[in-house]
Amino acid sequence: MSITLHHHPFSRAAGTLFMLEEVGQAYELQFVDMKAGEQKQEPLKKLNAMGKLPTLVDDGVVVTESAAIGIYLADRYAAGRLAPALDAPERATYLRWSFYAPSVIEPGCMAHAAKWEYRAGSAGWGTYEEMLDTISGAIGDGPWLLGEQFTMADIIFGGTVRFMTQFDMLEKRPEYMAYVERLNARPASQKADAINRRIMEERGITMG
Questions:
Q1: Residue 20's closest CA among 69, 68, 53, 91?
Q2: Residues 140, 143, 146, 147: is their CA dihedral positive or negative?
Q3: Cβ contacts of residue 122 below 8 Å, gap of 6+?
Q4: C-alpha distance from residue 50 to each of 15, 19, 183, 196 (Å)
Q5: Which are the contacts of 56, defined by CB distance < 8 A and separation ≥ 6?
Q6: Do 3-80+189-203 and 90-186 share a fold?
Q7: Strand, coil or helix: what is 167?
Q8: Domain at 3-80+189-203: CATH code
Q9: Of the four, 23, 91, 195, 206, which is 20 to 30 A from 115 by CA?
């Protein structure tokens, strides 16, 4: 197998499984014992100086950061299906929401939860309320960010919405939860969740 995902079910690599299952390319998992601190040790630190998951290796090519991994996998293995063509007008919207998740939603939720004091005009994520309305607008009438076409942007953006609502870091607006339900209903999502649960059971991993 050419693709190896360094993985732990309580890391962002859990969501990368959804990406890999949708792409449909063979892959193997390399378990990283985060409790033992393996993510901060060699050999992972040699691949990813941040010592973080997910870290993906494809034929010797190292890709880190969840959104980058998703874009990479879709472009290489599912172009036209999970990723609009490079010259397609839809690619602008695809890229916009793919990068909105790590650039705005994640820091915006963290700032709101931690009650950071900051000037919205100076922060890249703006205000929490503007972010909420923007997420609603992106989902729109759905079912997906590009209308009828499901893309990797839905896994990146939608996965973030799913995680943040699950842990009450994002308002559970009806349109958010309906979108999450559509994501959860996808066979690739269900298979990824089953793999994560199996690994937790096999290794005796609990949230505590």
A1: 69
A2: negative
A3: none
A4: 19, 22, 29, 23
A5: 3, 4, 5, 6, 16, 62, 63, 64, 69, 72, 73
A6: no
A7: coil
A8: 3.40.30.10
A9: 206
pLDDT tens digit string along 123-177?
889 999 999 999 999 999 999 999 999 999 999 999 999 999 999 999 999 999 9
Which candidate, 3, 120, 129, places its Cα nearest to that of 69?
3
Reply yes or no: is the peptide bond before residue 143 cis, omega within 30 of 0.
yes
For 78, the token pair is 């599912």
- Match domain 90-186 to its CATH number in 3.40.1390.30, 3.40.720.10, 3.40.50.170, 1.20.1050.10: 1.20.1050.10
Its pTM stands at 0.95
Q: Which residue, chain included where needed, has tokens 């990283």?
A: 32
Q: Domain segments of the chain: what residues?
A: 3-80+189-203, 90-186
